[in-house]
Amino acid sequence: MACGSVWGLAPRARSRVQQWPRPQEQLGWESGGWWDVDCLGSPVFTPIKADISGNITKIKAVYDTNPAKFRTLQNILEVEKEMYGIEWPKVGATLALMWLKRGLRFIQVFLQSICDGERDENHPNLIRVNATKAYEMALKKYHGWIVQKIFQAALYAAPYKSDFLKALSKGQNVTEEECLEKIRLFLVNYTATIDVIYEMYTKMNAELNYKV
């Protein structure tokens, strides 16, 4: 997905009292993938981008086997729970979506941290503080010591904030504040959608806390 179109592809979150969104709406593979933020080009984001893409592919593969049965993400979890028995939820699209939501939460916390103005006062143009916060909130507890060290090493390759925002703007002549405002608007539905998925996992007792 081109970075310049990221703002127009925010997922359409639904009210908690409505039916859970269709997988292709909530995960965006019809629209070209709001989740596939190619402009996160720094090496620090490479494993997260790869994980998100891989898990989307796994979920779509399950959905494509029977779109009528898997009308919503909740349908997928319910069918797999019955299908796999005691192996569930550590299997199939249920497991893929569990890890996907964590990667999406990383992006959400990271972008929100930048919008909130959180920074290293000694190095205000670095985004290491923002990426570290996102990792600690979304992924760290699920990673073993080796994976944590790999991420910490990758942080040193994090881009400058100015370069990152320029990439998000895809060369458009916009001010930093204009770019941040677009991110804030994008985050409204993006955050709500992720929250809905987390809530679904809690209600269905599908969350796992093992480390990789």
TrEMBL record:
InterPro entries linked: GLTP_sf, Glycolipid_transfer_prot_dom
Keywords assigned: Cytoplasm, Lipid transport, Repeat, Transport
Ranges of residues in domain Glycolipid transfer protein: 37-169
Signal peptide: none
Subcellular location: Cytoplasm
UniProt xrefs under SUPFAM superfamilies: Glycolipid transfer protein, GLTP
Keyword Protein biosynthesis appears in the UniProt entry: no
The protein's role, per its UniProt record: Accelerates the intermembrane transfer of various glycolipids. Catalyzes the transfer of various glycosphingolipids between membranes but does not catalyze the transfer of phospholipids. May be involved in the intracellular translocation of glucosylceramides.
Protein name, per record: Glycolipid transfer protein
